[in-house]
Design brief:
This protein is an all-alpha fold. It has 9 helices and 2 strands; from the N terminus they run ααβααααβααα. The longest helix is centred in the middle third of the chain and has 30 residues, at 126-155. The mean pLDDT is 92.
């Protein structure tokens, strides 16, 4: 039993040291690919048609501040208040799930989503979720808020083969990420929970909610 515990602990330590090393590199180097991007590539092998990947990395100052605010409002309203994990939101979601007797809805922060996008896939499993929770504070500390947001906006999925804010702006609005207006930004942010099924043009209700959240935040 002691040997099993030792190797389990050793494996966990090695995994987190490896993640820490990669996150440190990502402070200065943009990712060549991500776990979710590789997942989509493999999935395309078993589907009809040609898979075309669109991905252009741009610095945060070339991404509309409206999109930055819209994504934070939609995905992680307390982004600047927590340190990778929003414990207040997690507790709220857990309480709601216990009261309603339903499965736990998502409460992932932008940092947790970034960890998932970079190193894992969209497939749900408890091991991935455990690593997300343990690695998110590390990512928040090593990368800092600005780099976390920059990376997230550049690796997020916004349609079939559409990765990052720059390509999303081109694909959906024939413009650049820097020129997205408030309405366009809110509609793009509204697609993030389900980017392969949602389209900005149909996100009327949710985009209005996001814009209301932005206004309440003073944006």
């Amino acid at each position: 039993m002691s040997r099993v515990v030792f190797w389990t602990v050793a494996t966990v330590v090695v995994i987190h040291l490896s993640l820490a090393g990669e996150l440190f590199l990502l402070r200065y180097i943009n990712p060549i690919t991500t776990g979710v991007q590789m997942q989509r590539r493999v999935e395309s092998w078993f589907k009809k048609g040609t898979y075309r990947m669109r991905s252009t990395f741009v610095p945060l100052n070339r991404i509309s501040i409206q999109l930055q605010h819209a994504v934070i409002s939609a995905e992680d309203g307390r982004f600047y208040q927590h340190h990778g994990i929003d414990w207040a939101e997690t507790e709220k979601v857990l309480q709601e799930s216990l009261e309603e007797g339903e499965a736990l809805r998502g409460a992932s922060t932008i940092t947790q989503q970034l960890v998932k996008n970079l190193f894992f896939t969209t497939h749900r499993n408890p091991i991935r979720k455990a690593v997300e929770y343990s690695a998110a504070p590390m990512a928040d500390f090593i990368l800092g808020k600005r780099r976390v947001l920059e990376l997230y906006l550049n690796v997020a999925e916004w349609g079939p083969g559409v990765w990052g804010a720059e390509e999303a702006a081109k694909y959906h609005y024939k413009t650049t990420a820097q020129r997205l207006d408030r309405e366009q930004a809110a509609r793009l942010a509204a697609c993030l929970p389900s980017p392969l099924r949602r389209r900005p043009a149909f996100m009327n209700q949710y985009s209005a909610i996001i814009q209301e959240r932005m206004s309440k935040a003073g944006w």
